[in-house]
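Appendix B. One record, verbatim.
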Amino acid sequence: MGETAPLLDVQNVSVRFGGVRALSDVSFQVSQGEIFSIIGPNGAGKTSMLNCISGRYKPTDGEIFFRGGSLAKRSVNDRADLGIGRTFQNLALFGHMTVLDNIMVGRHHLLKNNFLTGALYWLGGAQKEELAHRLEVEEIIDFLEIQPVRNAVAGTLSYGLRKRVELARAVALKPDLLLLDEPMAGMNLEEKEDMARFVMDLNAEWGMTVIMIEHDMGVVMDISDRVMVLDFGKRIAEGLPHEVMANEHVKAAYLGEEDAALLDEEDTGAPPPTEAVA
């Protein structure tokens, strides 16, 4: 039997803004059912890559395939219809709306009734459709344990809860591929543990493939199937989490050459080199 085709196939993608290269010839594949993390220093091009996959950026060069089909001519809305959902590094909730209404927005592209049938709310199928979508949303609310704030105005919630509501809205798309941009940034330890558990459960129980940008290396090591490292827009490593974190180029990218060398000395127990005395 041949190998299963990847869910996502990124081929030689580059992104330039004027003279600045955000991404340079980056290629990788993500299989159905994986949790795939993208890590790297600030400014490495991680969010630019998610923006290319979700359709916010158009690659200058290269191409991206989802389920074997090119995304080149697909709009952001088209990609949502195909099954690609995402969260953002900076919260993008409607602060004046309730938690329930924010999550319902995530179901919008799944609505089948148009303006005319919607106008005949009680006679047509719009009422039945809305009830079905509300049931789906209630399932997500229960799953992410935000029942106590379901009717609260989103803008009044704590930062950690708002991050969870944004995840709920992305999940409401019922995506096959979920793009998470620093889902645990700014959270305390307990909130991070909860979010990591939700990501793993969405992957294992709801069958969502996940591509995640995350700076917390403990979380990345614990929940990722594979990891890719970007530095200055280039892929410098990819593989199993423990293999990637042992990579000398990765250590240097995060710590700097001298600090990486000191870390190696601590790991091996070797004494630092002594200077010759004249």
